[in-house]
Amino acid sequence: MRVAFLRFVRRFTVAASLLLLPLSVAEAATALTPATAASAVAPGRFVWRGDAAAAAAGPVRVLVSLPLQIAFVFKGGALVGVSSVSSGAPGYDTPTGTFAILQKDKDHKSNIYDDAPMPYMLRLTWDGVALHAGKVTGEPASHGCVRLPLAFAKKLYDLAELGATVSVVDAVPDFVQQAPAAEGNAETAETASR
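Above: the chain sequence. Below: its structure as tokens.
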């Protein structure tokens, strides 16, 4: 019961928080709604705003919240994607901190875990931690990497450049904690599951 309640609170809070991010007049017409954002954080689901990614100028930043098991992707300060993730399972904790993407490999195989496939790998550390496509349960389940839904991992791989910043935090971001309930605009974001 407690887990179900926490999942509900997590989904509602993230959905509302997405509406608080600064939007231009053009972006307001394509803002994420509570419905699309809530579905985005269900295990294996995501929202990607290709229009915002194409229009925004500036660096790509990724913020992974371990307690929420959610990744937020920003380009030049504009939110362009939100996805459920699966981080490291107990005993294989995903390290926290700020990382630069060190390497990109579309068809990477693990050199630690029996050539396990790591599609659309974005390496964060030289000792094996990366963002990559994999099974996303919405719970910590990996050997330390951050697993992403396949289609989201591909979009992020295509958008992010070497050196892009990835922050992994063991906290709920302030913009999520301060989110009141709100109504959104028309649903125009791409939503997908894998």
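The chain has a mean pLDDT of 77.
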